[in-house]
Amino acid sequence: MPTFSVKHLLAIVVCCCVGLTASAQDIHFSQYFASPLTLNPALTGAFNADFRVAANFRTQYFKNDWNSANATYMTYAASVDGSFFRKKLGADQFGAGLQFYSDRAGDGGLSTTAIVASIAYTKTVDRYERHSITLGMQGGIIQKRIDFTKLTFESQFNGVDGFTPGPNGENFNQTSMIMPDVSIGLLWRSRIGKKHNLYFGGAYSHLNSPTESFLGAENKLSPKITAHGGMEITLSKSVSITPGFMILSQNTASQINIGSALAYRLAEQSFLYFGAWYRVGDAIVPMVGYEINGFRAGFSFDVTASDINAATNSKGAVELSLVYIHGQEPPRNISPVKFCPRF
């Protein structure tokens, strides 16, 4: 049996943890449209109302074959943003917001916490207020922690029946790090005819490529590129559909989400939503939502449709979202370029 040094084992474990974080483990939600400041800083204040509050929760359980226990993957996010100087700016908009998120990944006790602030400015580009472009910026700090007591090392292997809990004989200089983070984004919104609203957006996250390493190495957090878009198509006074897509690319990892939702108006300020998204090559995500008087709740479940189903023990991810928009103007009063994409 090959013998590895403790330093080699430590390097492998930590590089795996950090490498996954850099290339594929930026937080993401299946209900990406319900976490606007996570998706694109240009969505900050992109609505015709006083302010918006959003909260998101996602969890997934994986079967751990070493100890037959469940290692939990959980992500929380919350944000608040507002649209300011609406009377002074007329058709243009200025938005500002604040976001917090926390992510815990698996057995190694690797956790990520961040707090970021964002601003955005929307400029109408035609005199009929049918088209607008928004530039958004985001900046804050990210903290990463790892609990080395939850990892196993060569010195803990007893040679008989596996690993023995207890001291690992190692001294770690750093179990936590804090790094600055900067992102930018663009958003284009248009009104096509009387029944179609169209939007496209893009974001470039980790613009400064901050260094992240528990061992003092020059490991850079890879930039993430996001593209998203969709339409809001009014079919009747009571029914509309909202097809959309999102594409993520970070280092060697990529993700494509496509899908649509149907909105049915139950009353003047009450809507019921049904929809489904497909994360290409990975999962099908059915979703149901309900909105009343500015409060919107969504529930979705990731049904794994790939080989990773064996690793997850056929357990998909559950996701909840809550969004509240205060002081939203009636649809007939909203400028076409200020519509807020729903589901």
Please describe what this structure looks like:
- The chain is 9% helix and 51% strand.
- It is mainly beta and 343 residues long.
- It has one domain: monomeric porin ompg (Porin, Beta Barrel).
- It is globular, with a radius of gyration of 22 Å.
- Residues 1-24 and 64-69 have low confidence and may be disordered.
Keywords:
single chain; about 350 residues; mainly beta; Porin; 16-stranded antiparallel beta sheet; 16 strands; about 10% helix; globular; disordered N terminus
Write the layout of secondary structure elements.
Layout: H1 6-23, H2 36-39, E1 51-64, E2 69-84, H3 86-89, E3 93-105, E4 110-124, E5 131-145, E6 176-192, E7 196-205, E8 224-234, E9 239-241, E10 244-250, E11 253-267, E12 270-279, E13 283-292, E14 295-301, E15 303-304, H4 308-311, E16 318-326
Antiparallel strand pairs: 1-2, 1-16, 2-3, 3-4, 4-5, 5-6, 6-7, 7-8, 8-9, 8-10, 9-11, 10-11, 11-12, 12-13, 13-14, 13-15, 14-16
Cα end-to-end separation: 54 Å
In CATH, the homologous superfamily goes by the name monomeric porin ompg
Oligomer: single chain
Order of helices and strands: HHEEHEEEEEEEEEEEEEHE
- Taking pLDDT < 50 over at least 5 consecutive residues as the criterion, the unreliable ranges are 1-24, 64-69
Number of structural units classed as domains: 1
Question: What does this entry show, briefly?
Answer:
The chain has helices spanning 6-23, 36-39, 86-89, 308-311; strands at residues 51-64, 69-84, 93-105, 110-124, 131-145, 176-192, 196-205, 224-234, 239-241, 244-250, 253-267, 270-279, 283-292, 295-301, 303-304, 318-326.
